Every structure is written in C-alpha cells, then in structure tokens.
Amino acid sequence: MNPIRILPWLLALCAGAATAQYPDRPLKLVVPYSAGGAADAQARLVAQKLGARLGQTVVVENKPGASGTIGAANVAHAPADGYTLLYDATAFAINPSLYKKLSYDSRRDFIPISLVSLTPNLLVVPANAPYQSIDDLTAAARKGHLTFGTPGQGTAQHIAAAWYAQGNKLDLTHVPYKGGAPALTDLMGGQIDMMFSNMAASYPLVKSGKLRALAVTSPLRVDALPELPTVAERGVAGYAVYEWNGVLAPAGVPANVATRIEQELRATLQDPALRHSLQELGAQPVGSSSAEFQTFLDEQMERSAHILAEAGIHKE
After folding, report:
1. Which of 119, 239, 267, 296 is the most exposed place for a label (fewest CB within 10 A)?
2. Dmax over Cα atoms in the chain, in whole Å?
3. What pLDDT is stored for residue 20 in this prediction?
C-alpha cells in the first residue's frame, strides 16, 4: 500500500485515540474579569461541578482588563485541544462593535459551547426620587435632562440605557464610573438620577429600601418582583437586555471534544445545588446547546452593533 495514502488514515486514528481519552489532565477556565465579580463567582461554582463530572480539576484563571478582551484573546490564541475554555459575559458580544480593532475575531476564533445563565437588569432610582413608575421617569426625562450611571462606557448597562433612551426618544446624560459599586453609591446619594443595574447587585438595595425599582429589562416579569413591569411593556417594543454568561472554546477544538464538554456542562447545569447557588447570585440557569448559544450570540452582536452605532458609542 502506498505510504502516502496511509498517512491521513494514521493521523486520523491517532487523533481519535487522543481525544477518546479526553480529559486526561486538568482544564483551565479563563475568566476575563476580576476575581470576586459576578462572572468569577459563577465560574467557580460551575468549574467545581463540571470538574466532578469530567473527572478532572477545572482551574479558574482570572485575566481581567480592557472589558474582557485580554482574557478572550488569551483563549482565542490557546491550543485548540479542549483544555483551555473561556467563561465570558455580555461584553463578549458588545466588544466587536465597541472597539475599532481586536486581536481576535469573536465569530471566527471561538466555538460556543453553552449559554450558562441570564441575569436581568433593574431600572432603579433613589428611594426618595419623585418617580413612582417608569412612566413618571420617562415623562420627566422628556421635560429635562436626566443623568444615568453605568459601570463604564459600552457596558451592558450602557446598552440598556441607550436602548431605553432611543426607544423613547430621550436625551439622557451618561455618567460612566469605574465599576457598578461606585455608581450605585452615587445613585443612593442622589448624585445621579437613574441606573440600569445588574439585578444581583441592585435587588438587595431595593429590598432594603435604599433604591426604588421601576422596571426590569427581561422580556418577561421576574418572580422576585412580579409587580414590576418590563421596559418592553412600557413602550419600547422588543426590548430585552440580559447580562449573560457562557462557555466558549478556541475554534478548531475536535468536534467530539466540544460535544463532550457541551454535554457535561449542560448536565452540570441541571444539578439542583448548582442551580440554587446561581439563583442566589441573581442568575437564571440555562444550559443551552452549542447551536442555540451561537444563535443567541449572533442576535446579541447584531443588536449591540445597532444600538452602539445609533448612540455613537465606541472605544479606540
């Protein structure tokens, strides 16, 4: 037999044998955000349970900076063997339109594995604000300039506020902060008028009476605050903004390895204890297929690009 013809067959056989043993060493789950944040807290819960199912340790490694692009680039350029994964969030879908140039291609360089969770934002105002409803707030914004705070330029909360403003033809003044905590502090103190804030961070402040919630950004009302309308209900058709978290792998990961990770991750997200822990963080567990996650990402990227372009939001 011609040895040249044998070679591809041997290579395929060797590759199959290697992936059949997957995983035979610890995995690395890169979180492109700081330790102690919402994404990091979720990732550590998921990593522990996923590792138990895979029979290997899943080590969480934080690589924060530049709105998550440093950690994403690290994974994009990692070996495509299934041992380095990315635990990313909403910024992943925003960054391609926010930055003029990235060192990776968000569509070409990654395989979506599974959407892990969704967390809505709350539209909140100071507890002593005169607005008793989102309609009151919108009416006031039409009469004069109101300010809104965000954790930074081009964040999910900025997208949420920009879409609300565009849908109601409002001229709001953006006050960016270096993180959500200082923005919420100023909101409680009355230095800014309103904020779209991650429900995990703002709901305890609403419960304690320090903030007033006027609406939720999800397409459906939330069980924790059933009386709270959605932004879509109050006049912005199609409005739906979540902060999401999901797992991606470098493009080129063998199909059977990607499928194994997807199956084990989806099974992991059915674990009652893990679901309860994620819900305590304000997140709604999902566990999608790779195809479903790809469709979700495509929609998120397209929507973010439109809102950012209309609002003139960008970074160098």
Report:
1. 267
2. 85
3. 62
DSSP string, 197-259: EEHHHHHHHHHTTSEEEEEESSSS--TTSTTPPBTTTTT-TT---EEEEEEEEETT--HHHHH
Q: If you average pLDDT over every residue of the chain, what do you get?
A: 92
CA nearest neighbour of 121 among 211, 207, 184, 203:
203
* Cross-strand partners of 115: 246
* pTM to 2 decimal places: 0.88
Residue range 49-73: average pLDDT?
Answer: 96
**If you search the block for the tokens 């002593």, which residue do you land on?**
128
Task: Please say whether the beta carbons of 163 and 307 come within 8 A.
Answer: yes
Q: What are phi and psi of 265, to 5 degrees?
A: -70, -45
The pLDDT of residue 8 is 47
**In the predicted structure, residue 10 carries a pLDDT above the cut 80:** no
Which ranges in 38-133 belong to alpha helices (H)? 38-54, 69-76, 91-98
Q: What is the pLDDT of residues 254-298, one digit of tens each?
A: 999 999 999 999 999 999 999 999 998 889 999 999 999 999 999
Structure tokens at 189: 């103190």
The DSSP annotation for 169-213 comes to T--PEEEE-SSHHHHHHHHHTTSSSEEEEEHHHHHHHHHTTSEEE
Q: What span, in angstroms and rounded, lies between the C-alpha atoms of 4 and 289? A: 39
